[in-house]
Amino acid sequence: MSVLPERDAVAGLGALGSPTRLRLFRLLVRAGEPGAKVTDLVRLMATPASTLSHHLLALTRAGLVRQERRGREVICTADYARVAALAAYLTDSCCVGLDGADPRD
């Protein structure tokens, strides 16, 4: 598992910084590898399709969600490798102490 560059970590955390996007992302995590149809997400989130599309775009641009067209449906899936890399970024230097620490690391 690779650790993300800082700019990618900022993008991922920023995308999750909206309560709606966080709820949406958690739904996709619950859906697992099969993912979820956009139409199901609209129903479960009780959000207009255009609003949901905006939130999905933010998550996709941050690399946290993948979208695949299957016939007429669009299937969304959480990108678990990217999420693992984001978690690794956050915990990369866990418990090493503050001596000589640089906040940019």
Largest sheet: 3 strands, antiparallel
The unreliable regions are none
One letter per element, helices H and strands E, the order comes to HHEHHEEH
Report the β-strand fraction as a percent range: 5-15%
Discrete helix count: 5
General form? elongated
| Radius of gyration, CA atoms, in whole angstroms | 16 Å
User: What is the CA-CA span between the terminal residues?
Assistant: 18 Å
Which structural category fits the helices and strands?
Answer: alpha+beta
Textual characterization of the structure:
This protein has 105 residues and is an alpha+beta fold. It is 53% helix and 13% strand. The chain contains five helices and three strands; from the N terminus they run ααβααββα. The chain has a three-stranded antiparallel sheet with strand order 1-3-2. Strand 2 and strand 3 form a beta hairpin. Helix 1 crosses helix 5 (80-91) and helix 2 (19-31) packs across helix 4 (49-61). The chain is elongated, with a radius of gyration of 16 Å. The mean pLDDT is 91.
Describe the secondary-structure layout.
Layout: H1 6-15, H2 19-31, E1 36-37, H3 38-45, H4 49-61, E2 65-70, E3 73-78, H5 80-91
Which key features would you list for this structure?
three-stranded antiparallel sheet; elongated; 53% helix; single chain; 5 helices
Summarize this, please?
The chain has about 100 residues and is of the alpha+beta class.
